[in-house]
């Protein structure tokens, strides 16, 4: 959105456009990456930047991580990989988690990105491509160690391992990484973690020596056995708790630092009498005279309707509950306990006093969905208080 350059002084874009403000703290991102490097104890730490880096912005996030020495990036789709390669240039490896669509081989090859090969037919197509170009191509294969989503089922992996010296197997390819993904890594006590670890070890062991990778954010904190050569954190980079359930249940703190702040200005304040209907459908009525504040953020901005009557904003340490339904472009807050709140004051929706995981819990979802739902109307700012450039 273009702001005229001759705006009178003091009129900030946030006030002019009436949108909420989304701040991404790249210094905090950098510190989170360093924390993960420490926690990885020598395993390489890739950056998972799929879905536009969980909604934060894949390019600024990846550029920041490159400067921290990150050399591997994972996205979900080939289109994301191509865009990231154009933006990053350079030599970092860019891997496509969702695999190789039939017919996409040449496009991936030309973009210099590597599909994660999830099925035998994908491996065969990649091998034919290598043959056509007379080149040994890097290959990454994913094994399904129990999640039943992507990757070679154990019987296909066994077949492939048996062929690995012959023409049907990995011939023409250089196996650079064997990976799998955990279904329950956010639940440290879940027995599936051990089971998947054992399955992965056993199947991966049948392939020629290559780097191995099993852990996402949650997996990285499950212990040394899970780290292998490369770990793949996403949500932890962006400040989400790797084990959010444990954080709530037993008070284990989130080791990561908040990266995203979302604030919104108060648009209007009113006092309503007892009995007044509040918002669409009158799902709430004022039990007493109430002071209400309206903010210009709604479900179109990613504050889902499921937060009707259960979300909250924070202002000067005070919790202002969402009251009534979340609408498309606005939310009503109970500001009865904030008599000094004024139009234009900024309330916090995610920030130091209101963690991403707390918001997710109130919304009945996970931090991932909160971040990837953040809408395009926010005034986005990337700040880097400790960095070289903004
Ligand atoms: C999304 C994803 C990750 C990152 O997961 P987080 O839980 O965000 O750390 C890692 N590996 C695979 C295969 C993924 O799909």
UniProtKB/TrEMBL annotation:
Q: Which reaction does it catalyse?
A: L-alanine = D-alanine
Which BP terms in the Gene Ontology apply to this protein? D-alanine biosynthetic process
N6-(pyridoxal phosphate)lysine occurs at which residues?
Answer: 50
What is one Pfam family matched by this protein? Ala_racemase_N
Locate the residues binding substrate: 149, 328
Q: Where is the active site?
A: 50, 280
Q: Say which enzyme class the record assigns.
A: isomerase
Q: Which GO terms describe its molecular function?
A: alanine racemase activity; pyridoxal phosphate binding
Q: Which GO terms describe its cellular component?
A: cytosol
Q: Which UniProt keywords apply?
A: Isomerase, Pyridoxal phosphate
So which cofactors does this thing need?
A: pyridoxal 5'-phosphate
Record-listed E.C. numbers = 5.1.1.1
**Pathway given in the UniProt record:** Amino-acid biosynthesis; D-alanine biosynthesis; D-alanine from L-alanine: step 1/1
For this UniProt entry, which segments traverse the membrane?
none
Q: Does the keyword Isomerase apply?
A: yes
What's this chain's function? Catalyzes the interconversion of L-alanine and D-alanine. May also act on other amino acids.
Q: Which PANTHER family match?
A: ALANINE RACEMASE (PTHR30511), ALANINE RACEMASE, CATABOLIC-RELATED (PTHR30511:SF0)
Q: Which family does it belong to?
A: Belongs to the alanine racemase family.
Q: What is this protein called?
A: Alanine racemase
Per the UniProt entry, what species is this protein from, by scientific name? Aureimonas frigidaquae
Q: What is the lineage of its organism?
A: Bacteria, Pseudomonadati, Pseudomonadota, Alphaproteobacteria, Hyphomicrobiales
